[in-house]
Amino acid sequence: MSGKKPCIPAESEDLLHGNRRDFLKKTSFLTAMALTPGTVVKAAEEQWDEKIAGVFEKVSLHIDVNGVKHTLSVEPRVTLLDLLREQLKLTGTKKGCDRGQCGACTVHVNGVRVNSCLSLAVTNEGKKITTIEGLANGNELHPMQEAFIEHDGFQCGYCTSGQIMSAVACINEGHAGSEAEIREYMSGNICRCGAYPNIVNAIQAVKQGGQS
Amino acid sequence: MKKETIGDSLSRVDGRLKVTGGAKYSGEYDLPGLTYGVLVPATIASGTITAIDSKAALRAPGVVAVITPFNAIKVPGYQPEASTRVKGLKLFNDNQVYFNGQPIALVVADTFERATNAVSLVKATYQAQPFETNFNKNIDKGVSPQNNKDYLRGEAYAYKNAPIKIEQEYTLPSEMHNPMELHVTTAFWTGDDNVTLYTKSQGVISSQRAIANAFQLDPKNVQINSRFVGGAFGSSLRTWPHEVAAVQAAKMLNRPVKLTLTREQMFTLVGYRPHTVQKVGIGATADGKIVGISHESHSQTAVYEEFTERSVNVSRFLYSSPNVNTVYKVVPLNVGVPAPMRGPGEATGSFALESALDELSYALNMDPIELRLKNYADVDEEKNLPWSSKYLKECYQKGADSIGWSNRKAKPGTNNDGEWLVGYGIGCGAFGAYRSRSLAKIKLMPNGTVNIQSATSDIGPGTGTSMVLIAADILKIPAEKIVFELGDSSFPVAPTQGGSATVSSVGSAVHDACVALRQKLNSLAGKPENNTDDIDYAKVLTQNNLPFLEITQESNANEEAKKYSMYSFSAHFAKVHVHPLTGVVKVKNVVAVVDAGKIVSYKTARSQMIGGAVGGIGMAMTEEAVFDDRFGRYVNGNFADYHVPVNADIPQIEAIFINKPDPIINPIGTKGIGEISLIGVAAAVANAVYNATGKRIRELPITPDKLI
Ligand code: FES
Ligand code: FES
Q: I need a labelling partner for B594 at 20 to 30 A (CA). Which of A1, B34, B646, B654 fits?
């Protein structure tokens, strides 16, 4: 944890204790009234207050993804995975379950592997995210990417981004000491195509190459 | 410069895209005005929807529409069917509910989160009716499928009169395809009669036809893109109702709609390998000659559609027997319809037949390989035709050598390694080698590079890599000068990727197109048509003032093939360790040996064999979809509770290819490996567990509780 106070709107303190939606409806409605009374009154009749509230429910977020700094405004319920895929259009990170059960969404948060579907985007304020798109050095592939190609560590390729991000972390954590250890520490990443032995071979090759 | 040939070990041609996140799958196209569709599941298993209250959902932020049977536009191709057995599911067409989880509405919103939230706000009321999801309770209601004939050769149930006989029942629970990519369809209309889809499909041409039929469009006006497919294993062989619903929603809203299934919905809406109970009887003489086999199968299907597969067929031809009879029935339940899953039917059937054969070997006190050799089928006794090629004996031999079969103890439970019991097993399989009509277009560019297009797919086997190797071999140019494109319905027609027939069908078209191009270039260069010496392609183009050279070639199965029975064959060997106190099974080694004709792309073929073995280990050890029959709902519709094998479950797996070209099937001599890689694996593991423990597990998966 960075220890910094999360950047959420000032009124949020009140909201922690209760009726956030009603509060937002009121404040946003009043603000909107002041701006364009006619339309909004009509909108309110059509129960558009909910929709306007939706706009105001967003939270600001500062996040560094693959070295690019973003200042964003996101709904608190947006996961880091969906932020990457749907808002930042970084679709290299995959969604296989949305429940933390498959590893397809693995990214590095401040260098640590994380299932991005289990991490709400707003909890990553000020953090550095590395996705599969940020692993290579320009045109030069990361050794793990090279090794996956060389050892055919994938077939359909859908689990591959997660496998590679996990594999890099597996070595960095010191969990690639033996074939058995690699298997154990790579078991959070499902590959339905069944490329497991090739994945293990790729990781061992990188490990033995002394780099990751 | 290296010039690759057929059989080389080339790294995947799309490997770089896949390891950098650059490969775009169907849910990853950014379209202006994109909306997100999430399906609302029925909470009853049978009955009718009486009302759907969408008010709260429509009021929620960002919600664009809630599409229900009460407000959906009609899909013009949804016509009443003559028979309820082939009816199929037509979403939002009427208010019938056939199974729990059937979509009753589609919420469309401007973001995924908002659509997902609004799903919880849709309230449906139902008139519920009694339903059945319990297979065992309803097995007596099994019916013979339409167009299905029971099989008889010689005398029925002849095994009963044999001196040594086995008569047992084998059960496979429902197994889910569970490709890692969630099924997804993005659809948008560009006019009243023109629609484009990015959809997870194993066959863009069949998807094109299905969508054209549903909306009564000229197929030319339906564009299907499926360039990368994140696994499928059969789950994308057909166009599912939710794909039609995405197109319907896009039409109603006049906006692009991206409809993604949740993992839980993947358990009910895109098929599965059906729960099957099989009875196998085998009788033999005292010296091990089989005198009769009977194989009866009951499989689950949906009340709204009949699904069949060939689970009993393998017993008709895999071994020589004068008497064989098979019976196949389906049991309609309030469940989603099954779909072919890798090694469809054959994998289920081979588990039963190969387990029974193993039981017979112990009853005869005979080595399981010797028993197989004794009953080796030199011709196809079902079709009464010679094999186009069959090297199963070589498979037995190579596999036995590699796994260390000589270390196997004939008496179960007598082989120890420390506190573990050790066992060895064999399981065999066969899968038809097919070839169907396919086209390929080849274009030679002025710089000497080649572009080839065909509307085939790649769900993971490495189709592009195989095609590039075939082209490199014939054109005698380096693989890096060749680009193969697939997954687009505007490309020349190719069959759906299924039945292990892509290299046989599309590979033949690529082969023939390359040969035609080569001949053309030879004649342009003033050489004999069949000249094989190197020629400078770029120079030939320049000399003839040609900007490029393009040929589209059609390739069809040959007449000669009708005189033969064509199959790929496999022998899988497993070595297991079983912990007698806890019942824990560790698969220590798997050797997969296949006779699949010529191997075109060694590296990807090896991976495919490994992948099939992993699927087979899942079938043997972990996979089981469990119903709660009180509600007709799966209790384990997720990856935490439905266990597919993970890395720690899988040992190193050895793939061995006989690699002898089939002389008949196609010009390359390749027979296909996608299915055969899985068929026989589950029996090999179950037989190894018996050899280790003396406990015969006839009901998969082999979980520890069954061994203690
Ligand atoms: S998508 Fe995150 S673990 Fe499966
Ligand atoms: S490569 Fe297909 S799921 Fe791993």
A: B646
